[in-house]
UniProtKB/TrEMBL annotation:
Superkingdom of the organism of origin: Eukaryota
Protein's UniProt name: HAT C-terminal dimerisation domain-containing protein
Classification via Pfam families: Dimer_Tnp_hAT (PF05699)
Molecular function (Gene Ontology), one example: protein dimerization activity
Domain HAT C-terminal dimerisation: 120-201
Organism per entry: Araneus ventricosus
Amino acid sequence: MATLKDPSKKIRNFDVEEKKNYLPTKSVFMGDDVKRLSTSAPKSRLAVVKKFQKNVLKAYVECSQTLQKKMHLVNLLLQSASAIDSVCRKHPLSLTLMKGLPDLVTNVSSVGERDAYDFEVHKYLAASLRQPQQKEPVDNWWMKVKNSRQFPLVSNIVCVVLTCFHGPKVESSFSIANLVVTSETNRLSIESFDAIQTVKYEFMSEKKSAVQLYKKKEYLKDKVDRNLCKNMNSASRNYRAEVLSKKIFCDKQSSTRKKLESKEAANKISAKAAKLQRNIHLKKMRSQA
């Protein structure tokens, strides 16, 4: 929440190369596997470990310098979004920034609800709410606030702001999409892709394959999963309906093209006949002269 607490100039001028501002080496995020390998490395490999840690620190410094140059610290939406963090409730700027959210996120509340929203912001900032636990995600904290139904208008706007996902997981989703949407399946609909990803997520969460998940111990005696059969039937029915609607759409387009072509041909024939009649008329006029 540095955007809310510190001026943008202070953040831009912050010396990220100053070693006194560094975190301890043990606190620097490098991944669990890397930490495990670093702590269990023999003495003969300590030089390699230290060199790796130095390179990681260098990468963080260069990344920070890039962010200082490119990050939109003066962006009003980012500043207002930073005010929704529960740790910023007592900050003097929180009231102004949260009141301005409806002007930036315009598709949630109506103009008639603006006064009620402003009143809720005052109530939210003055209310005695529980403090967030250590490392508790801000969306989890706000979900509990929303479920309490104390601030419905504020909660709706906050939830919309929190749906602006970012980070490595979002970036990796594009790579995952490339595994499904290939040159051979480039006409795959969004609904089909969503269904594929949902099924894959289900298998990954259960840590089982499709055969393991739906395998029966006794095929003749085990109960039939009615929901599974219903979903399979509805999926097949929806697929056939989608194919039919696409066929009808394509047929309409092709018939429209044929009509245009026939109309164009008729115009050509009409123009040719008119030209012929004009030539005949000119010949008659010349013969009479």
